Amino acid sequence: MGPLEVVSLAIWIMLPAYLPNNVAVLVGGGRPIDGGRTVRGARLLGDGKTWRGTIGGIAAGIVVAIVLSSLAPTVTDATGVTVPTFSALATVSLPTGALLGDIGGSFIKRRLGHQRGSAVPGLDQYDLVVGSLGLTALVAWGWLVAVVTVWILLAILVLTPALHLATNVIAYLLGLKDVPW
Ligand code: CTP
Ligand code: MG
């Protein structure tokens, strides 16, 4: 497998995990998940984690996984790269795990005293990777090991921070986010 193939597969596999965060930015707002609750003076999660963003993001990720699965045979024929379909469990676990990871990241940020929207390099980029692949490992291990090779995992770890930065800069330029991270 060549590098281009590895990178393409990494993006294909992670699209249902990447998209929920971006959709959450678009549809987020309204009631925060933590309902305003605080622990030792700091918000449990903060106003950046809302029900609408979470549910909308997960729904979008599920839709994209279903669409990619339906396109897989055509893409495989057209490109010669065998792109995988998403099992039913992976279809749900990738987006759900991504936003659970993101929520876990905010929980950790608040405990460390970081305000909403502050940048914590590493945590901000990898919380969704740990969440999406972690939950998928728990519920769809067979699917995960069949499609994510060591090289694809390495590509995911290298690409994610770059894609995260790129999409956040775009969201910032579009006025969707207050800070470009
Ligand atoms: N968002 C949401 N629900 C989520 C995740 C994100 O509504 N589960 C929306 C919020 O409007 C949030 C924006 O997407 O402000 C950007 O998400 P993110 O960068 O994860 O949140 P931050 O506001 O930066 O807050 P934190 O410091 O907790 O990461
Ligand atoms: Mg943020």
Overall body shape: elongated
- Alpha-carbon distance between the termini? 33 Å
Query: What structural class do helix, strand and pairing data support?
Result: mainly alpha
H and E order = HEEHHHHH
> Helix amount, in percent?
55-70%
Count of helices?
6
Please provide the count of β strands.
Answer: 2
Strand content: under 5%
Strand order of the largest sheet: 1-2
Write out the distinct hetero groups bound to the structure. cytidine-5'-triphosphate, magnesium ion
Q: The biggest beta sheet, please?
A: 2 strands, antiparallel
Rg from C-alpha positions? 17 Å
State mean pLDDT (0 to 100 scale): 96
Describe this structure in words.
With 181 residues, the chain is mainly alpha-helical. The chain has helices spanning 3-27, 51-79, 88-111, 123-139, 141-147, 150-173, and strands at residues 38-39, 42-43. The protein has a two-stranded antiparallel sheet with strand order 1-2. The longest helix is centred in the middle third of the chain and has 29 residues, at 51-79. The site of cytidine-5'-triphosphate has 18 residues, from helix 1, helix 2 and helix 3.
Write a concise keyword list for the protein shown above.
2 strands; 6 helices; single chain; binds cytidine-5'-triphosphate; 181 residues; mainly alpha; binds magnesium ion
